[in-house]
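so my prof wants the structure for this chain in the tokens format not the other one, which i didnt know existed until like an hour ago. anyway here's the sequence
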Amino acid sequence: MWYHRSVEYELIRTKRKTIAIYIREHGVEVRAPKWATVSDIDAFVVSKIRWIGKHLEEQAKSNLRKSAFRLDYGSVVQYMGREYVIGSVPGENIIYVPPGLDRDRLLKKIIAFYKEEARRHINERVLYFDNLLNASPYSVRIGSAKRSWGSCTSPGRLAFSWRLMMAPPEAIDYVVAHELAHLKQMNHSPKFWAVVGSVLPDWKERRKTLRLLQKRLENEKWD
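here's what i got, hopefully its the right format
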């Protein structure tokens, strides 16, 4: 941890060419080239002090909202774009969990529900869009990524976050088609977006829906 009289920050040396500042849950992170001097880094931090202060305040508010986030019986959660109540009695618009669970075990049950639904639904949608795109993925995995909805590696390994099951079906389809399209174009070039658009002409609207959900999740602590 490095200190400047105005701000405390974590310094990470990388192969990058420029200095960059990130506001993380734990505070300020500065990534800098290996050749950059401490005085260069401090000067850059000072030049961004107002920006840092504004975003630290926003992060502190977000952290408070996250610390207040609790799941319990009767809580309302999103599942495929609709609101459901966590309940101990099966019923319509209910996500059932056994009665008498403490909050930690209840949270694990809800996450397990999302993961199981993700394995079922997302695999179905991968098959659907693969038939359209002939992308031939090597494997599909459901993970717990917080910062991305999905990912794709060049050998054809797809991964999706279970959190995606909170999104409406049309937004889930966008992420699935997006990652499969990377097997045709491993970039975000116009050719890539043309592949996405060939199966989802309204992909921009679908992406907006995801961004709204992302803002909501920024204030919820699921781990």
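also thought this was worth mentioning. The chain has two domains: 2-68, 103-217.
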